Amino acid sequence: MQNTPEDISNAASGHKANLSNPNTSEASKAHSKEMLEKLGGEDAFYSDQENVSKNPNEVAGGLKAALHNDNTTEEGKKEAQEKLDAMK
Predict the structure, then answer these.
(1) How many other C-beta atoms can be found within 10 angstroms of the C-beta atom of residue 12?
(2) Please, which of 38, 40, 80, 86 could form a disulfide with 63 given CB 3.0 to 4.6 Å?
(3) According to the model, what pLDDT value does residue 1 have?
(4) Comparing C-alpha atoms, which of 87, 88, 6, 1 is closest to residue 44?
């Protein structure tokens, strides 16, 4: 395994997933918690999107889609509408 930011982030993601998996043992979760700390905790997660600004039209489109999605909760729809209104 190389130690690029992407590799570290991928390893951290796997350990974080293990912590939330109800089918893994407590020993496995303890190991994952220890490894996450060694990898840098929340700082281990890499994003190459940090310096990229979001396209406002795409954001608005996603918010509008959430408003019409039957699987979105009423609370989620309200929050999407508030964000959409704030963009105007």
Answers:
(1) 22
(2) 80
(3) 52
(4) 6
Please give the Cα distance from 44 to 50 (Å, whole number): 14
Q: 33 exposed, middle or buried (CB, 10 Å; 0-12, 13-18, 19+)?
A: middle
Place of tokens 């109800």: 22
Cα 46 to Cα 2, 43, 50, 53, 80: the distances in Å are: 14, 8, 9, 17, 27
pTM over 0.70: no
Query: Tell me, what amino acid is at 48?
Result: D
List pLDDT tens digits, range 31-68.
998 988 888 887 777 665 554 567 889 999 999 999 99
Tokens of 55: 């396209």
